[in-house]
Each structure stands twice: as structure tokens, then as C-alpha cells.
Amino acid sequence: MVSRASANDLRADLERLVHRHEHPRAARGEIASSWERSLRVGLHPDTFTAPYQPDFDPAARLTWAAEPVLAQLAHDVEGTGIGVLASDEQGRVVARREDEPAVVRVLDRIDLAPGFGYGEALVGTNGIGTAIASARPSTVIGTEHFAEALTGWACAGCPIMGPDGTIVGVVDLAVAVERGNPLMLGLAKRAARDIEQRLRADCSATEHALREEFATAQRRAQGPLILLSPTTTLANPAAARLLHSADRERLWDLIAPVLTGGAPAARVLCLVDGSSLGIRWKPVGDRDRVAGVLVWLRPVSSGPVVGEAMPPSGLVSLTAVERAVAELVAEGLTNRVVAQRLGLSASTVQSCLRRVFVKLEVRSRVQLARTLERSAAKAQMFAALDEVKCRIERDLQDGVQQRLAGLGLSLGLARASVPPERAELADDLAKIAQGLVEATESLREIHRGVYPATIAGKGLRPAIQALARRSPIPVQLDLRVGGRLPHSVEVSVYYLVCEALAYVAKHTKASVVDVCVASCEGFLDVTVRGDGIGDSDPDGSNLTDLMDRVEAMGGAMRLVSPPEAGSFMQIKVPVKGS
């Protein structure tokens, strides 16, 4: 295991960096970057102190998962002089296995033992700290170490990723530099994967439920999302990139009261870099106990304006060619067959497929097929539901309402035939007639809510206008839809507007709502803006039906609900092929 540059060249490189601030020329890029980080935090190659941090739990979950893996690895490398260790996410050694007393003695001389900190900011470039700082497997050989005291060692470290996708520790193999072996990094990677598997398998029923809840919310979230509990932290990629460990601790301090039935200490999270994020939360658990909290994050100043273009996402973001490629690939066809079917080159198909994976946030053909199948299943479900509503509407109008109208006429005739001396009977019949009128009006309200019959004869514009007139809060309309659209599209958009109005009225307590429906280049853009307060669950269960219908249409949706500043909802759905 030999470094690409000689020992003298590397130390000369480091010397020039320390005293002249010259960028290293002989060192590997990752080593040079690590040296520069070490120098920025005030370390010097001639000094070495690994701080002892005894306040760690030797029975912690990471240690439990690592111990049998390290024991097996130590057995596999017995006689090679290699020490096998694991650290936590801060670089503090939490476990060490070695079967040779001589190895124990030399590891103790450099404090490479449980409780000692080997973070890069503490001791400079090394297998543990640099693997954490670079978030990838790392080898540090001899004089590549920043500290002179460690230059007699060769180390290979691989990060251990927790079930939430964050680094929870490092597997590190350390040996005297003259006995270094290129296979050490591969062994560290294998051990890290085995530990990760044990961590994933060690999920209690509560943790499993939390992960299921997070997975459901993650599919619908359009921004940073994180789930916090006393034992679990889960974050989607956007939140993982946004929040550092110190930010997560601050967020936990804000959210912790929710676990005991309270409210967050604040609605704004101040990050360590000075920026701020607004938070929305949803308790997760049952009536008796809150097991965790889902938290949606967004810049406090965010908030699109009416007419602002909606960032493409989901199925609606696919071009016609990408959609065709995705559908054929989802059927199980190879790239070559897809290229022949569509008259494209194989490289074009591959390029389209890569873009599809990125836009739909899938990683495999199986996930792609499931995404399209789910969308198609929801489309069929809503089509069937709308057909049932249409049938109920016809039965109500042609059956029950007609019969009530006939009864009303008969009752009117009966009232007219009552002699003057039977005034009491006439009054009773009048009361029954009034009750019949009220029942008929109630039935009409139910009839309107079941299915928008106006669409069949007059189209989307009159149907939405009628919906606005019946709204309990004032609605200002801006309808820019020219001509008739496919019937299924008009019905679906009507229900989208209906559900959006109901959401804004119920959950944000708006006093006035602005609704804009505009058609443009094969899409319909629906925006609903209301004043009032924000919603504490802007990405949660309040919007489930609405999100499902948008997904069924192959569309996309976003909601911005700043504290005390109302809500802005934007929906984009395709007109063709819905």
C-alpha cells in the first residue's frame, strides 16, 4: 500500500502549505483538501492531541451493530497487524477489535482507542476524520497524514450510513505503513455495508411505523422534509443537504414540545449560517402517544406570486418523447427495442431515460414501472369514481327530484281543493308543502356536490362560476379557458377547484379567495390564493385527495402557506391525454 508520491515530496508539500500557503502539488486532491481544512481550524503538523471524550454509550445502537462485524473482520485479518475500529459520526472511537497484544500497544501509543476523538478538526487528516469530512471512503497512507505523529500508519476508512441516509460512523482499518495493503479499503467497505444492514434490520414496530409515515410524506413533499423522534431521524435529500448536525440539534430543541402534546417553541428555525427557515409540523403516532414529528422546511421569505411559472416536476415535466420512452421501458422493453419502436438512436433513448429518472426521482426501471402503474391506477380509480358520481347525479335528477316535483304539484292541487271551513287542514298542508320545498332544495345542493351537471351542457367556465357563487366565502375569478376541453379534463379540473376552495376555506380561514384557471400550451394552470392564517399541515393529510387527483392526471402541485400570510396553491395538469 504505497502512496503515489514519495514521503519526502509529501512532507515538503505540507511544509510549503503551512509556511507559504502554497497549494500542494504532489499530494492527491482529497489529501490536499484535507490538509487545507486542517490548517484552517488551527492545527499544526508538529502537534498531536487526540482528546478523550468518555461520555459515550458503549451499548449504543451503532456499537451494538458494529461489534460482531468488527469481531469477524478482526478474525479475518488475524496475523496481519491490522487494528479494526469503529467511530461515531463525530470521529470518536466507540469500538476496537484486535487479537495481537503488540497491535494493542502501538494503537494505544497514538490514542487510537475507544473514547478518543479522531475527527479531522481534532487531529488533522486521518482515515476516520477525512472519511467523515469528505463523506466517502478514504485511504491515508504514511506521510499523507497531517500530524507527524501519525505518519507511521496507513489507514482506510469507510463511512457507515444510517437508515436515514446520514453518516452515523466510520469503519477504520489501521496498520503500520510498511504492512499496508490495498485490500484494506475493500474490507472497510464490506464491514460498513454489513453494519448498515444490521442497523436497518434493527427497527422496532414504532420505528417501522415512523419510516412508513416518512416514506408516504416523502412521496408528496416538494421541499426539505425531516422526521424527528427520540430514537430516529429521517431526512429526504433536500433536508440532508440543507441541515448540518448543529442545525438538526436546533430543530430538535424547537420540535421536542410536540412530542408531549405541546407546540413548537418557534415557527422559524435559525440555521448556523445565519439564514432562517419556516417550519410546518405534523405529529406522528396514535391518540395516546406521539412517536415522532414530521417537519416541512422552507425559506421564510419564499412565496410565489400569481402567474409565476411553476417549476416542472413529476410526470407533467416529461416531454412527449420522454413520456413515450418511460412508458415503453416500464413495459419491460430494452433500450434497443424502445429505440426501434420510436425510431430513435440507442444513445437518445439512454439520455431520455436518465432525464426521466431525475425528473421522477426514481433509481431503477422497477421504480419507474411502479410510478407509472400507480399513476395509471389512480387515473382509473378517479375515472370510475366520476362515472359513479355521474350516474348518481342522473338518478337524483331524473328520479328522486322528478318525483318530489310531482308530489309538490299534487300537494298544491290538494291545498286548492280544501274548503274554506277547513282552514286548519289548509295550514297543515302549507307546512308540508314548505317542508317539501326545503327538502327539494337540500337535494339540489347534494346533487350539485355529487357531479357538476353544468359541465355537460355548458363547459368548465360556467361550472366554476356556479361553484364560486355557492362558496361560503367571496371568490374572485380569473378564467382564461378558451373553448371546450376534453370532458374528463373539465370534470377533473372542476373537482380540483372545488377541493382547493374547501381546503383554503377550512384550514386557512380565508376571508376572500382568488381563483385563476388558464390554459397554455397543452396545460391548465390552476392557482388558488387565500388570505388568513397558514396551515400547520401544508403537506399532510388535509390535501391527500387533492394530491391523488393531481397525480392521477399526470400533473404537479405545490402549496406555500407562510405563517399568518394565507396560502397559495398552484396546480399544473396536462390537457391532452388526461
Written description of the protein model:
This protein has 19 helices and 15 strands. The protein has 578 residues and is an alpha+beta fold. It folds into four domains: 7-201, GAF domain (Beta-Lactamase); 205-299, 2-Layer Sandwich (Beta-Lactamase); 364-451; 460-578, Heat Shock Protein 90 (2-Layer Sandwich). The strands form three sheets. It has a five-stranded antiparallel β-sheet with strand order 2-1-5-4-3, sandwiched between helices. Helix 11 (320-330) packs across helix 12 (335-342) and helix 17 packs parallel to helix 18 (487-507). The longest helix has 52 residues, at 365-416.
From the structure provided, what is the oligomeric state, counting identical versus distinct chains?
A: single chain
* Overall SS class: alpha+beta
Share of residues in strands? 15-25%
Number of helices: 19
Which parts are unreliable, with pLDDT below 50 for 5 consecutive residues or more? 301-309
CATH C-level name of the largest domain:
Alpha Beta
Average pLDDT, to the nearest integer? 80
Number of strands: 15
How helical, in percent, are the residues?
A: 40-55%
CATH architecture of the largest domain: 2-Layer Sandwich
* Overall spatial form: elongated
CATH topology of the largest domain: Beta-Lactamase
SSE topology:
Elements: H1 7-20, H2 29-40, H3 61-76, E1 83-88, E2 93-97, H4 101-109, H5 120-123, H6 127-134, E3 138-141, E4 153-161, E5 167-176, H7 183-201, H8 205-220, E6 225-228, E7 233-235, H9 237-242, H10 245-255, E8 268-270, E9 276-285, E10 290-299, H11 320-330, H12 335-342, H13 346-360, H14 365-416, H15 423-450, H16 453-458, H17 460-470, E11 475-480, H18 487-507, E12 513-520, E13 523-530, H19 544-552, E14 556-560, E15 567-574
Helix pairs in contact: 3-7, 11-12, 11-13, 11-14, 12-13, 14-15, 14-19, 17-18, 18-19
